[in-house]
Design brief:
Blueprint lengths: L3 H12 L2 H6 L1 E5 L8 E2 L3 H9 L21 E2 L2 E2 L3 E4 L5 E3 L4 E9 L3 E8 L4 E11 L8 E2 L4 E5 L11 E9 L7 E5 L2 H4 L3
Antiparallel strand pairs: 1-2, 1-13, 3-4, 5-12, 6-11, 7-8, 7-10, 8-9, 9-11, 9-12, 12-13
């Protein structure tokens, strides 16, 4: 007889596509609070993102250099993003077409950009920026590959480890720039 944990894992493996398992996520609020409601990202979201051919959002970084640290712990919470290490001042690129929804400064993320995709289905979140690119402000349309900022260590990033904290989340019907369901960007970006 299989124990409960083994049965549960087997049942999940048989009933859910592996892509859903790899991106199952809690609803998150990027201000640091985790709402109690849990959600699972559906495979259609990942399929949409994969077909958008998103750019790796740090200039000069190749897919093989990315590391999947989405599931890693950060204190009492899950990371829900990937960190892309690069020298301070390296250009940060718009991952896809859309518009800048919000420029924001927080204790955790430092200088950040929230970018809505063209359909306003997803937010691309860029954190720990050293500075914004010239002309970047809320409402500005951007195209995939446009320079929107520069890698830094603002917020709670270690001062000796410049990197881009990059997250993707699916927006809710309210289209609140700070709130959504986290999706792991690694599988989408690593396929390039």
């Amino acid at each position: 007889m299989l124990d409960f944990s083994t049965r549960t894992h087997l049942l999940l493996a048989l009933t859910l596509p592996s892509i859903v398992l790899s991106v199952a996520a809690a609803a998150v609020n990027t201000h640091g609070a985790v709402p109690p409601a849990q959600a699972v990202v559906d495979a259609a979201d990942m399929d949409i993102l994969e077909h958008r051919n998103l750019a790796i959002p740090v200039q000069g970084i190749k897919a093989k250099e990315l590391r999947d640290n989405f599931e890693e712990g950060r204190g009492k919470r899950r990371h829900d993003a990937i960190d892309i290490v690069a020298p301070r001042g390296t250009p940060v690129l718009a991952a896809g077409d859309g518009r800048i929804a919000k420029l924001f400064t927080s204790a955790a993320g430092g200088l950040t950009i929230y970018q809505f995709d063209a359909d306003e289905r997803f937010t691309y979140y860029y954190a720990h920026l050293d500075r914004y690119a010239e002309g970047i402000k809320a409402g500005v349309p951007v195209k995939r590959g446009d320079v929107i900022g520069y890698v830094g260590t603002t917020g709670n990033a270690p001062k000796n480890t410049p990197h881009l904290h990059f997250a993707i989340f699916r927006l809710g019907p309210e289209k609140q720039w700070w709130k959504g369901i986290a999706l792991n960007p690694y599988p989408v970006l690593a396929r390039q």
